[in-house]
Request: fold
Amino acid sequence: MREVELTKEPVELYKILKFEGLVASGGEAKSVIAEGQVLLNGTVETQKRKKIVSGDIIEFGQEKLLVKLAK
Reply:
């Protein structure tokens, strides 16, 4: 599981997928979320602008991300 550090929270789900390089663009991120390909804390998440906070776990494809707040 890869750790992602946020400098501020909350951050919208699609932005994390884009900034972590899991998708090529924000548009692609929104598309894969809408299609139900992304899990948030083990549940399918279809809200593109879902607010992500420290402790959340995002799964997409073979990637698993643990979100943490930078200290």
